[in-house]
Every structure is written in C-alpha cells, then in structure tokens.
Write a structure and sequence with these properties.
This protein has 530 residues and is α+β, with helices and mostly antiparallel strands. 51% of the residues lie in helices and 20% in strands. The protein has 14 helices and 15 strands. The chain has helices spanning 2-32, 44-62, 93-103, 142-152, 182-186, 221-228, 230-267, 282-341, 345-364, 372-389, 414-425, 462-469, 481-494, 517-529, and strands at 72-77, 82-83, 114-119, 122-131, 134-141, 158-162, 169-171, 191-194, 197-205, 211-217, 394-400, 432-443, 446-455, 498-504, 509-516. It has a 5-stranded antiparallel β-sheet with strand order 2-1-5-4-3. α1 (2-32) crosses α4 and α8 runs antiparallel to α13. It is elongated. The chain starts with a helix and ends with a helix. The relative contact order is 0.06.
Amino acid sequence: MVLDNVSANTTRVLDSITKSMVESERSVEVLSSFVPSSSFSEDSSVWYFFYKDLQTNIGLLESKNYQDATPHFFSYNYVQKYFLRSNTHSFNVYEEKALSSWLSTPEGIIPCAWQDVILNDSHCYIYVLKKGDFYLGVLLSARSILDKFVRSSSEETEFVLIGRDNAYLITTPKSEITPEMYDSIFQGDERIIVNKNNATIQSFPTKYGFTIKTVTPSIVSAKELLVNKAPLIILLSGIIIFIFYFLTLKKCVKPLLLLQYAFFRVSAGDLSFRMRENMFTNEYNEVAKAFNTMVREIKDLRLNYYEEKLLQQKAENRFLRAISYPHFLLNNLNLINNFAYENNEKGIHDVVLNLSKYLRYFITADFEKHTLRNDVESAKSYLNLNSLAYPGKLRYSFDVDESLLDLFFPPLIISTIVENCIKHGLVSDTVLDIAISLKKTNDNGKEVLLFTCSNSGPTFPEDIVSSINNREMSGNITTHIGLASIKSTLNSQYSDHVIFRLDNTDTGVKVTIQLDFDVLKENHENTAIR
C-alpha cells in the first residue's frame, strides 16, 4: 500500500515536471519570435523598445508558477557577450559566468534539445536555440527537480536522481543515502539497507534521459498506530482547526481585509480615505495611524508636485518667449519699414496682420487652456511673415486633421519647431521647402497623435541629433535650446507616453512627435474640467 502511494505520487510529480519542461521549450520558441534574425541596428530608438519588450516577456515567463522545479529563462547576446536580465529574476554572478562560458563554446551546444550540462559543479538541464545575435534558452537544475519530489512526498521516502547512462547520482543534502549504497542503486537492486532498515527501490525513467529512484523504508508500526487512533485524532484536529479558524478570522483576517480595502481606495486615487483606529489590537492601531499619516503626506506631496511641475512648465514657456520675442519683433519692424519705403501697401498690410496674430499668440498663450489650433495658426503666421521677408525663398505646406485642433496641448511647441526649421534651414542661394503634418494614426494597434515637420535645409551635426534623441537628455545642452526645451516640456507633461525625435534625412531634417492619443484625450478632459 505504501509503495503504491509512493509510486503514484512520484509518477504524478514526474508528469508535472515533464509538462513543465515541454512548456519551457514552447516558451523559449515563443520568446525567439520577439528577436530579429539579423543583427541589431546601432540606432538606440530601435533596440531600446525591443530590449524593453524582451525583458518584459522574460519576466513574465519567470513569474509563471512551476511550483518548486523553477525554470530560469535567459537571453544571451553572444556578439556583445552580455545577458539581458529581466526585472523579476537574474542569475547570480557565478551562474552567469559559468553559463556564459558554456554558451561561448558553440560546438558543444545542441539546439532545440535538453542537454545535461555541469555549471559550477552542479548538473543542469539546458534547452537553447539561436536567433540573430542571441542564444535564448531555459535552465533547470537537477537539484530543483529532486527537491520537488522531496517536498511533494509525505512518506519517509528517499529520492535520488540518476543521470543519463548512469553518469552520476544526485541526492538531497539531508539524504541518508551514503556513497557506499551508490553501487546497489546503479546496478538496479530492488532492496538495500538504510539505517539498519530494509528499504525498497523503485525506478521511474524519463524521456529526457535521467531517472528518478525512490528508496522507501519498510516501517509500518507508526502507521498502524495512527490508524488505530484515527477517530480520536480526527475529532481533536477538528476542534483545534475550529478554534484556530475563529481566532484567525477575528485577529488577523478582518484587519487584513480592512487594510486591503484601504490600499484599494488609495490606489484608485481616493486620498481623502482614512482608516478607523482603535478597532482591534494595538498593532493594528499603529498600522492604521501610520497608514493615515502616509496618505496625508502623499496628498501633500502630490499637490506640491503638481504645483512645481506647473511652475516649471510656465518658466520654460516664458523662457522660449524671452529668447525669441525681441529679435523677431525688430526684424519684422525693419521689414515694415522697407515696405513703407518701397510704397508696398499690400506688403505692409500682410506683415502687420500676420505680425499682430503672431504677437497676440506669443503674449497671451495660456499654458493651461492652450490648444493645437493656437499653435498651428501661430506657425502659419510665422511662415507668412518669413515668406514676405524672404520672397521666393520659402515654400510650405500644411496637412492637418481639423478634428484634432481643439485638443489642449502645451504652447510654443509647433511654432518653435517651425522657427528652428527656418532658422537652421534657410540658406541664401536655395529655396527652403517645409512640410507640416498633424494626424491621428495607428501604431501597433494603439491610436497615436503624429506630428511631423520636414525641411529641405542643411542637416544637423550628429552629436546634436544624438543628444536631443537621448532618452536621458543631457542637462548641459548649450545649443539648440529651443528643441531641448520642447523635449523637456513634453516629457514633463506626458512622461513615457510621448516620443520626440530629430532625424537627418536624405532631403534635409525631420522632427517627429508621437503621443499616445488616449493620454492626450484624458489630459484634454481633465483640463476642460479645471
């Protein structure tokens, strides 16, 4: 009876481990679908989001519940020689070093097959495949497999793991199997002596080459005693369980449920919620007081953060106006003077009209209630003024979705980009073409607002392009302050939901803003309420 139970339990656990290894193979193959077959581009905008997605998928695989026999997934770039670590798990330094050394000898790697590998004197089973610059795989230690059997067994049974072709034998650290018993186990004996007691050996081979053997002692007296006293034990156990349940419910479960509800309310944005104090134990009261203090401080910090953020954005807005306004105004007054001298009444009319529109926007732009329409109209006025100032030297076009123009958006973004296009693109002996596009489009199933401004002027130095496009933009940029300020404003307003890029193209320069449309719409609704 005992041996039958051990056999059934071992078979069940072995099936679970086999299923886990099969699922791990499929997971590695799915993981490979996220890896391009070719080498990575040096463009950080390409590999940054790929690395982020790959790390997320590795983390998701590692967080799956494989009970005690936990597979460790890895992604190793054999060209750059580094591991791509997830946020949930990483190998320790010695495991990484040993695994990296093994992966650096590709002649010993058999793709798409579980291999028996020794890492740091420990036997491991590794399934690996190669894709692009990466080795993607999963590692399962023989020790963790053995521990799973031990934890799942309620009998006084020893478990040993025999390697392929009887290459090695592994036991648990607390095992009573001694080296002197190894020969009997390897030879397939059915019985051995463990601690002066007869023990029966059962064997369970696997499709992956290793074999699990159980060593079950023939001790039944204690079990017979339990059988005779079973009714009394069951009755006493029921009473103890009832008392324990009642005390646990009163002293632990209810306070924890109240605390869980409190955190739920706060995570939902309700910073006015407070926990009731003096309800249960002193420990609960201390937790409730600490929670209420924490929520009050979070509320104060949140208010201070929004105020500082608003002040910073307004300061950047004023800075953009300050560096652009005087020089631009003087240039256009000189233009009006020249038209007056030439008796060009229409030119004077056009300059004054567009200048007044532009200056009205420049002076009265409201950061909190500013819309895309304001910025687009300002950009048009600015382009009209420069067309008058440089006749025959400037051509421009607008491709704008009118349904987007009433959405709230930070001021001086589009107009500053247009100013930079003219400032750095207008050359005396060529015609400058500027194309502006503002549309709602789809990016990987997500709606985004896409703004582009392209010109046919000279390209930017690569160090400036790299600095502007760097995710952690350098804080000591002393040139192209307008573009740096735009990126800072967008990042402050929309965080990780916006992409701002400056690119040199075959025909000139292109500026791109890509913004999550749902975030823009939510910001619009919140601003409208205020």
